[in-house]
Design goal:
With about 500 residues, this protein is an alpha+beta fold. It has a domain of about 120 residues: 434 Repressor (Amino-terminal Domain) (Orthogonal Bundle). It has 20 helices and 9 strands. Strand 6 and strand 7 form a beta hairpin. The longest helix is centred in the N-terminal third of the chain and has 22 residues. The radius of gyration is 29 Å and the shape is elongated. About 30% of the residues are buried.
């Protein structure tokens, strides 16, 4: 089963590509000159014709036919018809975009690579591809070219590209109401495979998750030396999933499911940050959909809505998941099943927006290109005011009147992570608050952001007093001048991961 949060390629097409083992690079929509030339040459060889004989049959010079066969010249329609007649085949046969053989496909790939802008930018002469050129030589050239292309893409993967990809992905999520039926079906199938019908109340057990892993052909291994740049490592060759030791069993469920998502969704090595981000979203979605099955979760939500007691805390407690996962899962189901537009925020204690989703019209802070992550959230929003509350046991509810005359209600809670404190918030427009617990809250603020007078500019009195006397030293983040993490899986130390897998394979006698 495959799934996709993509506007450009359907799950079916991705599944077909995965099943057929077709190359990652997309084939041209129409036959190009290289493929056409190889098909002519292959057919001529099958018929035992020499180049000069076929050239004479179509009334062309051998040099012209050679240029056609080498993909350096496209034949006119009359010449194409003459070739088809002389080769006892149809024009459609010659125009097929499928290489006539594996060897021809390799030759075409090398020729195409050498004619590309990346190869030409290197300033080195191209080799002549002939029948005498060994396969190993062609494969080596093609492999080197692909590595050079990868390095070029990596260098071009600027932070702006990553943010742009994230903005596009969030737009696709908004179009779908953050609900993806393919992933819901995949989660239901996983549960069904171990006898869980998705209607049982209470948390999905660790034993159930381990059973799912076993059904998919994987065993679980808890280790003390998990590579520091990873949350889990999956060994597809030996059917093993490695997780950090010491995790409470409940907390281990989500990492296991995120690791298995690469198998269930047929993820391949990401070619871009856009694909990398999509895969992360799919993995998180699948984990939430398994731990909070759609059918029973929706039944609970509908009942809570009837009682006007919708609550993220109730979801968290009912399924034994983190507050953040419960909030995420609520956004998956709220619009599709409850007809409620919503927004979600995860904000660092510094005020930096880390994650965001909305389909209710709320205006998140952003730059001129629409990028949200990294922007500063208004100090008067619930996601910021919650940090100032002494009561961390109960959720914080608040109404916020926006500059456009719109009011939003939000529920928020603070959670701790290794990077510090974060607030996780879910909100709705005023018309939707009647369904939620906490709607009676007296807490209310006003926000005029992005107007700097709202919360970012000091008062005139303080500015006059201190603007020429204060000289603070900025706590510069270590990532300020750092390049965006590179590699197939950005931020992951491949050397460390591969060494880790090698050592455990040897230790288990699997090599």
């Amino acid at each position: 089963m495959t799934s996709s949060i993509s506007a450009t390629q359907s799950p079916a097409s991705r599944a077909a590509a995965s099943a057929s083992g077709s190359p990652r690079a997309e084939a041209p929509d129409e036959a190009d000159a290289l493929t056409l030339g190889r098909r002519v040459r292959e057919r001529r060889s099958q018929l035992g014709l020499k180049l000069e004989q076929l050239a004479a049959a179509i009334d062309r010079a051998p040099s012209q036919l050679s240029a056609i066969e080498n993909g350096k010249r496209e034949p006119t329609l009359p010449v194409l018809r003459a070739l088809a007649h002389a080769l006892d085949c149809t024009v459609d046969d010659l125009l097929s975009n499928e290489a006539p053989s594996a060897r021809a496909a390799l030759e075409i790939s090398v020729e195409r690579a050498q004619r590309g802008t990346v190869f030409q930018s290197l300033g080195i002469p191209a080799i002549r591809v002939s029948k005498a050129t060994p396969d190993d030589t062609l494969k080596a050239i093609l492999g080197l070219h692909q590595e050079v292309e990868r390095l070029h893409r990596e260098r071009a993967a600027t932070p702006e590209e990553a943010r742009r990809a994230n903005t596009e992905l969030r737009g696709q999520m908004r179009v779908h109401g953050n609900y993806f039926a393919e992933l819901e079906a995949a989660a239901a199938a996983l549960l069904e495979s171990v006898g869980h019908d998705g209607t049982t109340g209470g948390p999905v057990s660790q034993l159930t998750i381990a059973g799912i892993a076993q059904k998919l052909g994987f065993s679980l291994h808890y280790v003390d030396d998990l590579p520091h740049s990873t949350r889990s490592v999956i060994d597809r060759r030996n059917g093993r999933i490695y997780l950090g030791a010491g995790l409470p069993s409940r907390d281990a469920r989500a990492p296991i499911l995120r690791a298995l998502a690469s198998i269930v969704c047929r993820h391949e090595e990401p070619r871009s940050y856009a694909e990398f981000l999509r895969q992360r979203v799919e993995a998180n979605y699948l984990a939430g959909a398994v731990l909070m099955p759609e059918r029973v979760t929706v039944e609970r939500l509908l009942e809570a809505k009837r009682q006007r007691q919708l609550s993220m805390e109730d979801l968290r407690d009912a399924f034994g998941v983190s507050y953040e996962m419960a909030a995420h899962r609520f956004t998956n189901l709220a619009t599709e099943h409850l007809e409620l537009p919503v927004h979600f925020m995860k904000v660092h204690e510094s005020g930096t927006l880390v994650k965001a989703y909305e389909n209710d019209g709320v205006r998140f802070p952003s730059d001129a290109l629409g990028n949200l992550e990294g922007a500063n959230v208004c100090r008067n929003w619930t996601a910021r005011t919650v940090f100032g509350q002494p009561d961390r046991f109960n959720p914080w509810y608040q109404y916020t009147d926006m500059a456009a005359g719109v009011t939003y209600w939000c529920t928020s809670r603070v959670e701790k992570a290794k990077e510090g404190l974060y607030s996780v918030s879910v909100g709705v427009p005023f018309d939707g608050v009647k369904w939620f617990r906490g709607r009676e809250t007296p807490n209310r603020t006003r926000s005029f952001c992005p107007d700097e007078r709202c919360c970012r500019r000091a008062s005139d009195d303080l500015t006059r007093k201190w603007e020429s006397a204060a000289w603070p030293e900025a706590a510069t983040p270590t990532s300020l001048l750092a390049a965006l993490p590179t590699g197939t899986f950005p931020g992951v130390d491949a050397h460390e991961v591969y060494g880790f897998l090698e050592s455990y394979e040897a230790e288990a006698g699997l090599a």
